[in-house]
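User: Let's play a game. I give you a shape written as C-alpha cells, and you guess the letters that built it. Ready? Here's round one.
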C-alpha cells in the first residue's frame, strides 16, 4: 500500500514564471511606399513610468513592445489613440506568452505651439483646397449663393412668393455648406492616417491576467485552499482562481449536477467506484476499483473518454456540493484499488483518461485531498511509480 499526498498546486512544468517582467524594446513599424516594413527602435530597456517620445509617427504605424518573458505587443497608433480617448490609462494584452498578461500604458499627442495661431489659416486653406478639388459641391454652392442673392434682391417688396423663394434659397445654401464641411472633415480624417505627428508614450506597469480578463478580484473572493496551495502567494492564487472560475463557466461545471447523466449506470457498472462513508476525522471516502475497468464494454456502448471525464466531474461536484454541503475546505480520502490492473491497461484511452482527470484535479481542485491510498498494487507497479 502506498500513501500519496497531493496538497500543493504543482504544474511548474507547464507554467512559465510569474517573476517581474520588464520591457526590453519599444519600436515603431511602418510600411514604406515599396510595401516593405520599416522598423525604428525608440527605446531599449525603458523603466516603468518613463516618458517615451514617438516622433513623426503616422496613425497607420504600429507600436511594437517586446517583453523580457518573450511576449510582444503589436498594435496600431490609431487604435491606441482611440483607446486613450476613452480612458487615460488602459491595458493592452501581451501576445506569444503562456501566461496571459497585459501592459498598462498611456499615450497622448504632443501639440505644436503654433497650432492655435495658424488655426484660422488652416481652416481657410483646407476649405479652399477642398473647393478646388471637388467640382460638384463647388458648383452646387455657387448656384445656391446665386439663388440666395437673387432672392434677396427681390425682397424690396415682401410678398409670400418672395419670402418662400428666400427661405428655399437659404435652405439650399445651408445644405450645401453642411455637405462641404462634412466631406471636408471626412477627407481630413482619412488624410490624417498619412500625416506624421508626435506622441508621448508612458509604459506604466505589467500584470499577469487570466485568459482575456485582468485579475482584479479582491482577495476575500479567493478560496483559502487556492491561497494555501500557492504557499500564500496572493498574486498567483488570484490568477489561478480566476482561471478556474473561467473554466467552470466555459465547461458548464457550475450547473453539471442539473445535467442528465444517461451513461451514469453503465459507467458505474463497468468501472466500479463509490463513496464509502467517512474517515475518523470526517473526511469523505471515495473508493474506485481501477483494476476492474472494462473499457471495451464502455466503448461498445458508445461511451468515449470525454464521457468518462464528464462523469468524473459530475461525481466530483456531487461529492463536494452535496455530500460535503459546499464546504470549500473539505478534503477527501481516496482509495484506489489496482489489484487487477495489467501493464497493458496503463496505455491508450485508459491512460488518456487518467491524465485528463489528474490534470483537472490538480489545476481546479487544489488542497482537496487529505490522503490517497493505492492498495493491492502488483509487483511491477513499484517500478513504474
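Assistant: Ready! My guess for every position:
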Amino acid at each position: 500500500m502506498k500513501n500519496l499526498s497531493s496538497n500543493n498546486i504543482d504544474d511548474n512544468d507547464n507554467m512559465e514564471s510569474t517573476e517581474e517582467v520588464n520591457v526590453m524594446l519599444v519600436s515603431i513599424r511602418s510600411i514604406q511606399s515599396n510595401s516593405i516594413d520599416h522598423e525604428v527602435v525608440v527605446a531599449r530597456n525603458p523603466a516603468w513610468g518613463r516618458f517615451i517620445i514617438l516622433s513623426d509617427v503616422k496613425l497607420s504605424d504600429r507600436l511594437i513592445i517586446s517583453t523580457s518573458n518573450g511576449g510582444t505587443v503589436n498594435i496600431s497608433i490609431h487604435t491606441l489613440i482611440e483607446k486613450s480617448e476613452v480612458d487615460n490609462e488602459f491595458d493592452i494584452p501581451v501576445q506569444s506568452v503562456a501566461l496571459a498578461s497585459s501592459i498598462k500604458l498611456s499615450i497622448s499627442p504632443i501639440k505644436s505651439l503654433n497650432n492655435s495661431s495658424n488655426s484660422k489659416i488652416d481652416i481657410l486653406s483646407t476649405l479652399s483646397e477642398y473647393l478646388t478639388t471637388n467640382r460638384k459641391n463647388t458648383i452646387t454652392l455657387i448656384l445656391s449663393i446665386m439663388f440666395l442673392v437673387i432672392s434677396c434682391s427681390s425682397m424690396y417688396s415682401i410678398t409670400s412668393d418672395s419670402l418662400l423663394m428666400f427661405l428655399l434659397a437659404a435652405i439650399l445654401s445651408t445644405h450645401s455648406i453642411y455637405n462641404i464641411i462634412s466631406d471636408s472633415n471626412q477627407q481630413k480624417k482619412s488624410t490624417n492616417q498619412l500625416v506624421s505627428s508626435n506622441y508621448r508614450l508612458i509604459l506604466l506597469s505589467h500584470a499577469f491576467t487570466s485568459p482575456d480578463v485582468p485579475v482584479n478580484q479582491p482577495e476575500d473572493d479567493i478560496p483559502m485552499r487556492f491561497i494555501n496551495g500557492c504557499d500564500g502567494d496572493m498574486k498567483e492564487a488570484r490568477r489561478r482562481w480566476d482561471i478556474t472560475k473561467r473554466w467552470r463557466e466555459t465547461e458548464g461545471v457550475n450547473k453539471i449536477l442539473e445535467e442528465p447523466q444517461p451513461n451514469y449506470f453503465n459507467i458505474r457498472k463497468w468501472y466500479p467506484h463509490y463513496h464509502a462513508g467517512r474517515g475518523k476525522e470526517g473526511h469523505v471516502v471515495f473508493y474506485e476499483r481501477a483494476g476492474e475497468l472494462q473499457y471495451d464494454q464502455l466503448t461498445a456502448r458508445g461511451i468515449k473518454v470525454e464521457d468518462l471525464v464528464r462523469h468524473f466531474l459530475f461525481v466530483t461536484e456531487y461529492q463536494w456540493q452535496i455530500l460535503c454541503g459546499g464546504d470549500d475546505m473539505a478534503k477527501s480520502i481516496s482509495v484506489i484499488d489496482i489489484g487487477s490492473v495489467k501493464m497493458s491497461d496503463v496505455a491508450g484511452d485508459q491512460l488518456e483518461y487518467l491524465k485528463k482527470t489528474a490534470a483537472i484535479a490538480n489545476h481546479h481542485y487544489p488542497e482537496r485531498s487529505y490522503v490517497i491510498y493505492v492498495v493491492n498494487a502488483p509487483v511491477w507497479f513499484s517500478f513504474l511509480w
